[in-house]
Amino acid sequence: MQHQVCILIVEDDPTIASLVGIVLREAGYRTLHADTAADALRLAETNPFDLVVLDWMLPDTPGVQICTALKERAGRRFLPILMLTAKGELSDRVTALDAGVDDYLSKPFYIEELMARVRALLRIRAAENERDAAMAALEAQNDALRVANEQLRTMQAQLVQSSKLAALGEIVAGVAHELNNPLAIILGNAELLSPQHDPEDQRSVAQIIESAKRARRVVQSLATFARRGPMAKEWTSPTDLIERVLDLKRAALRSSGIALEVVCSSDLPMIWVDIPQMQQVLLNLLHNAEYALAGMPAPQVWLTVVRGHAEKPPLPPAQAASAGGAFVCFDVADNGPGIPDHVIERLFQPFVTTRPPGRGSGLGLAIAYGIVTGHGGQILINTQAAQGTAVRVALPVDPPESVSGQE
Ligand SMILES: Nc1ncnc2c1ncn2[C@@H]1O[C@H](COP(=O)(O)OP(=O)(O)OP(=O)(O)O)[C@@H](O)[C@H]1O
Ligand SMILES: [Mg+2]
């Protein structure tokens, strides 16, 4: 709908006010009339004018003194003011223009000239409006650009991070390879040196063996993390997988005094996995639970396998119910202290650990994440301070095309 220009006539002389009103309306403008300064300011509170025709001599306040107030009420929009007055001296014209009047017409005046000046002022206002709209559009574009810039910066940082990780993976693989042989020699020779007659020597040799074994464990973890090799997937039953893992871990949990409860639901389909890699994932999770439970009262681990969804697993002692979802879910839960807040955000990044030096390399979950996502699955964690932690490995029953083939 076309905006109808609205003009406020502030004039106490009824004849002039009526004449000006008639010609303006004939020209298609809407008009409002005020015969005092107070009236004009009151009308300006509620009406958005496009122009004011203002008489200097008003009964209450001189028109020239309300210019600023009228313009302020228009806010950021340009409100042109055309002053009509019998005061025709040069000093009067200067005073009016300095007070904020945009144009000036001495009484008596020609109607044609009044209309020409009104049109000229409205043209200036239209140009000002266009400039304001262009500025607003520019500001909006600027905001959008700022947001896009932020996103770009974040993506760039992620890119740098992932290329750093890729480079790190290569370095790690190389270092692990180089360290393997010397470590094997150290271990082999140290084992040959054992047993020793002197107890002091015996202790030293035992320390060498222990330290070399620890170094070998770290090197193996690094090598696993860095491994980009192909997967050898085969169909297996989730229960078989669990049994293989428990063969390796049951005794250790028992000797740590940790109770183990295993529940496998009966409706589990076969899964298409690289068995040693999935074993590694579950072992990493069980290691974490075992470590977290050290020194806890009534330590317990729940290992549950159900059909379900890729969603956070329930915390212990709640048992996951088989929900018939599109995933086979391996839930490893413990009633330990929960995962510390400051590592939760970065858990799947390599080298994030809260363990003392030499006790953990911070690779367990990073490795697990790589393997599980390589199977088209997800890892989800639910943890609560002083209640425990539950980790779900959700593997798709129907693996996506890209991960389902023999690699
Ligand atoms: N079940 C859990 N309970 C409490 N904290 C956990 C649990 N699992 C993981 N965490 C926290 O997450 C951190 C990272 O775990 P991750 O397995 O990646 O490395 P790590 O266990 O420290 O070392 P690594 O596995 O390489 O020996 C741990 O140091 C620990 O703070
Ligand atoms: Mg670990």
Order of helices and strands: EHEHEHEHEHHEHEEHEEHHEEH
Q: Which CATH class of the largest domain? A: Alpha Beta
As residue ranges, the low-confidence spans are none
Enumerate how many helices there are, as a single number: 11
Q: Structural class per helix/strand content?
A: alpha/beta
According to DSSP, the number of beta strands is: 12
CATH architecture group name of the largest domain: 2-Layer Sandwich
What is the number of independent domains? 3
Task: Please write out the topology.
Elements: E1 6-10, H1 14-26, E2 30-34, H2 37-46, E3 51-55, H3 67-73, E4 81-85, H4 90-98, E5 103-106, H5 111-193, H6 199-226, E6 234-236, H7 238-255, E7 259-264, E8 271-273, H8 275-293, E9 300-308, E10 327-334, H9 341-344, H10 364-374, E11 378-384, E12 388-396, H11 401-404
Parallel strand pairs: 1-2, 1-3, 3-4, 4-5, 7-9
Antiparallel strand pairs: 6-8, 9-10, 10-12, 11-12
Helix pairs in contact: 5-6, 7-8, 8-10
Bound molecules: adenosine-5'-triphosphate and magnesium ion.
Note the main attributes of this structure.
alpha/beta; 11 helices; binds magnesium ion; 407 residues; 12 strands; elongated; five-stranded parallel sheet; binds adenosine-5'-triphosphate; 3 domains; Heat Shock Protein 90; Rossmann fold; 17% strand; five-stranded mixed sheet
